[in-house]
Design goal:
CATH superfamily of the largest domain: Butyryl-CoA Dehydrogenase, subunit A, domain 3
CATH topology of the largest domain: Butyryl-CoA Dehydrogenase, subunit A, domain 3
Largest sheet: 7 strands, mixed
Shape: globular
CATH architecture of the largest domain: Up-down Bundle
Distance between the termini: 70 Å
Structural class: alpha+beta
Number of domains: 3
Number of helices: 11
Strand content: 5-15%
Order of helices and strands: HHHHHHEEEEEEEHHHHH
């Protein structure tokens, strides 16, 4: 695939997507995205979607990015997830000091980062210098990353790193990759554990992230945490759309289930269930589109970076993911016995969406934050309405 100009990203994306489905079994077998596919993603500009134009990036609008992640996930969930992590790393990096961002992206705007925000590293001062040790799970894309990061905490009483938390950012070659990624779904993401035990330069390798905020101007960087949940929603929506297409392919093939009096596509029960799945997927897309449009408008108005918008985006994304998971489960059930084989793309999507839905950010327990916010707002409204 030749390098496509950034002005033609949509065409480059479509060309890339056309090559993906045939290689999905390869991603599963290898438990990673092959390097030639990663190179094609780079050339298409996938990892530059969030990158500022000043650094050679695309700096797309949020709706265009969410749509791209959805389309990639519809082709293959591991590709969509890898795109979300790799592209999103540039978004996260704008919350590091400017000099750190320059170090990461000045020479190559296609830089890919991987890592974990779980605070599982330990920092301590030794006679030889500042020492970091830890092991972090779920480092999606670590097998093709250029840089990796891990969140750390200081040992008690360590005056050299008194503020917490901290993030350590180092070239990928300095990290160890531990082959732990043996899972039912999203196998191609290569989300293995990463480990580190080394001495670091406190001036260039470690950063205080107790008050993360992007320094980059522009609406795309106006509320980084608020945008992350919507990206997860886009992955699950893409998986659900793909599952619906897989189910239609089975029905349109003329398949007749055992002891049935007609082919699947002509039975009333199948048509009813298909209509239900389609309604659920359409509803999920409507919610995600509406929330993305709202977030983008708030970002353009400089009003996105609030706790209320963070909760609102999380609430919508969790509903989208939960709805899509149910839709994919129904697609798998309707697919019958042909869907149970490993070579079935419908079976793969069922496994993928269940793993995607397990992500911490997408757990229904986070609805509590939306409920509390609603109660607080209602109490405030009642107090105001009752005041003289």
């Amino acid at each position: 695939m030749t390098n496509v100009p950034h002005t033609d990203f949509a065409a480059a994306l479509d060309a890339l997507i056309a090559t993906i489905p045939a290689r999905s079994p390869e991603f599963e077998q290898a438990r990673r995205i092959p390097l030639d596919v990663v190179a094609s993603m780079r050339e298409a500009g996938v990892f530059k979607m969030f990158l500022p134009k000043a650094y050679g990036g695309l700096e797309l609008g949020l709706p265009a990015i969410i749509d791209a992640i959805r389309k990639l996930s519809r082709a293959d969930a591991s590709i969509g997830w890898t795109a979300m992590i790799g592209a999103g790393s540039a978004l996260f990096a704008t919350m590091l000091p400017r000099e750190a961002f320059d170090r990461l992206y000045a020479d190559d705007g296609n830089t890919i980062m991987a890592g974990s925000t779980q605070t599982l590293g330990v920092i301590d001062s030794r006679a030889e210098g500042l020492h970091v040790q830890g092991q972090w799970p779920f480092a999606s894309g670590c097998l093709h990353a250029d840089w990796m990061l891990g969140f750390c905490q200081a040992t008690p009483g360590n005056s050299a790193t008194a503020q917490q938390p901290h993030v350590v950012v180092l070239p990928a070659a300095r990290w160890a990759i531990i082959d732990t990624w043996h899972v039912p779904g999203l196998r191609g993401t290569g989300s293995a554990d990463i480990a580190l035990e080394t001495y670091i330069d406190p001036e260039t390798d470690i950063f205080d992230v107790s008050a993360l905020r992007s320094w980059m101007p522009g609406p795309l960087y106006a509320g980084v945490p608020q945008m992350i949940a919507l990206m997860h929603g886009a992955v699950s929506l893409g998986i659900a759309e793909g599952a619906l297409n897989d189910l239609l392919d089975i029905a349109l093939s003329g398949r007749r289930q055992e002891r049935a009096t007609a082919v699947m596509r002509d039975t009333e029960a199948y048509q009813r269930d298909l209509g239900q799945v389609h309604a659920d997927v359409r509803a999920a897309r409507s919610v995600l589109d509406a929330q993305t449009t709202s977030h983008w408008q708030q970002a353009q108005d400089g009003m996105l970076a609030t706790d209320a918008k963070l909760v609102e985006g999380s609430q919508s994304a969790i509903w989208v993911v939960t709805t899509c998971r149910k839709a994919v489960d129904l697609c798998f059930a309707l697919g019958g016995s042909v869907a149970i084989y490993d070579e079935s793309p419908l079976q793969r999507r069922m496994r993928d969406i269940h793993v995607a839905a397990q992500h911490n950010l997408m757990q229904p327990r986070h609805y509590q934050k939306a409920g509390k916010l609603l109660i607080d707002r209602s109490e405030s409204f009642l107090l105001k309405s009752q005041s003289p």
